[in-house]
Amino acid sequence: MSGREITPRFAPEITPSVEELEAQERRLVFRQFTHDDAWSLGSLLVELARERQAPVAIDIHRAGQQLFHAALPGSTPDNDAWIARKRRVVERYGAASYLVGARFRAKGTTFEDSSRLDPDAYAAHGGSFPINVEGVGVIGSVTVSGLPQLEDHRFVVATLEQFLGL
């Protein structure tokens, strides 16, 4: 980084409830999702991350194919590993990685202790959100890594809201 501090776009708040996270998923639904949509969404994520000087990596996958990837200054190869682990959670559960972790925490346990999945391959940490197409279902994911997990989640959600005009 250049010595400048990252100015958070979001004020610290109480962690959202499972119900709030589920409501985000019901609201953030696409009519369609094409290669061009992936490029436009990815480009918007890059633009907003640069405005924040956020040291993130960004990934968009659809049906097993990477349609967009960017690594901004300050991101590292570890961010790509986190992206893959969070994306696998979305692919397996059909829900945001942060929501999956929150559901385990609401049951008084953790994803790592109770999912029976390899923590080297799966991470129920914030930052990966399902691409849900109306009438079709979850077809992919958009993932950000590089900020604290709740900020990764909120950044993706806010960008999706802007992209979808909500």
Distance between the termini: 33 Å
Q: Could you tell me the strand content as a percent range?
A: 15-25%
Biggest pleated sheet? 4 strands, antiparallel
Mean pLDDT: 92
Can you count the beta strands? Answer: 4
What is the 3D form?
Answer: globular
Order of helices and strands: HHEEHHHEEH
CATH architecture identity: 2-Layer Sandwich
Number of helices: 6
Overall description:
Belongs to the UPF0303 family. This is UPF0303 protein FNH09_43840. InterPro entries: PduO/GlcC-like (IPR005624), PduO/GlcC-like_sf (IPR038084), YBR137W-like (IPR010371). The protein is α+β, with helices and mostly antiparallel strands. The chain has a single domain, classed as Beta-Lactamase, CATH 3.30.450. It has a four-stranded antiparallel β-sheet with strand order 2-1-4-3. The N terminus is likely disordered.
Give the topology, please.
Blueprint: H1 18-27, H2 35-52, E1 57-62, E2 65-71, H3 77-93, H4 97-106, H5 111-114, E3 128-133, E4 137-145, H6 149-164
Antiparallel strand pairs: 1-2, 1-4, 3-4
Helix pairs in contact: 2-6
Task: Write a concise keyword list for the protein shown above.
4-stranded antiparallel sheet, alpha+beta, 45% helix, Beta-Lactamase
Structure in a nutshell:
The chain has 166 residues and is of the alpha+beta class. The chain is built from 6 helices and 4 strands, in the order H-H-E-E-H-H-H-E-E-H. Helix content is 45%, strand content 17%.
